Every structure is written in C-alpha cells, then in structure tokens.
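Dear colleague,

Thank you for sharing your sequence with our group. We've completed the structure prediction you requested, and as agreed, I am returning the results in plain text so they can be pasted directly into your records. Please verify that the sequence below matches your submission; if there's any discrepancy, let me know and we will rerun it promptly.
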Amino acid sequence: MRFRYRFNPSALALFILGGLVICGWVLRDPRPILIASGLKPMALDTAVGFVLLALGLSWNILRWPAALLTFALGAVVLLAYLLNAFGYDQLWNFRPWAQTGEIYDTRMAIVAAISFCVSAFALVRPSMVLGLTLMVVMTMILIGYLFGIQLLNWGGYQPIAPHAGIGFFIFGEAIWHESQ
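Please find the predicted structure tokens below.
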C-alpha cells in the first residue's frame, strides 16, 4: 500500500472539530467543548476519536491503525460502562474544571462509543449501510436536540454532545460517498 493522501472535505471537518475540542480541553476554554449553555459537553476522548477517523479517511497507510485505535477507544468506553468502571476517564485528568455536577459529565456517551466501534468497521470496509446507519441515528439525535427530547439516551447514561452527533453524521456521509 502506498503512502497516499486523499483530500477529503469530511476528513478536514472532522479534524477541525476534534482539534478544536482538544484545544479547548488543553487550554481550559469551554467554548469548543460546550457549544451552548445547557447542552452536553464533548468528551476529550470523543475528540481524539474524531481526529483518528479524520486521519484514517485522509491517509491510506493510516486507515487500519486509525480503525484499530478508534475501535479500541469505543470498546474501552463500552467495557467501562458494562463493568461500572468509572475511573478510566481520570486518565485524561482534565475533568474538575468542566463538571456541572453530574457524575458522567465528561465521559464519552455510550452512543458515541458504539458509533466509534461501527465507524472503525466502516473505515476499513466502507459500506453504504454503515454510512446511512450513522447518518440516520445522528439525525434522530440532532432532531431530538432541536425539540428538547433526549433520544437514544439509554438508562440515564451521558447523552451524546450535539457537535459529536454532527461529527458522526459527517463521517457517515463520507463513508456513504466512499462506498458508491
């Protein structure tokens, strides 16, 4: 496999989204993390996942490593939810200044973790079905935000941040176009 870069506007959008949120966490600026008062913040690990997906979409040689790391990220979060291991997110150690009182405030949403696992498969094997699935699920979530309804919020876990929903929609669209 050749080391080949492909310009992909969706990858650029994901890289900018993830990069801005990472900068917000590192610089302790809540604006890119919490885009509006009352909305859910994007977790740092979610932003890292978007940067990984962007790299996988842009560079052929990074597609498999990015997919493996993205899947591992989602799987670790899912495992932490399943085992009630709520201490894993302290590895990021940026939490105290961003908490608003809820225990799951800066934890990746369970929907995001599942979406990262699905996205990892879509990255190595682009499929119209996987792309459309991501787009439909994220559209439902974003419509829920518009109408003030918490859609796909399982068991009171942390809901997905709206800009994370937009990021997964953009990735789904990129995979859908790639599979045609």
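Summary note from our side: The two ends are 21 Å apart (CA to CA).

Kind regards,
the structure core
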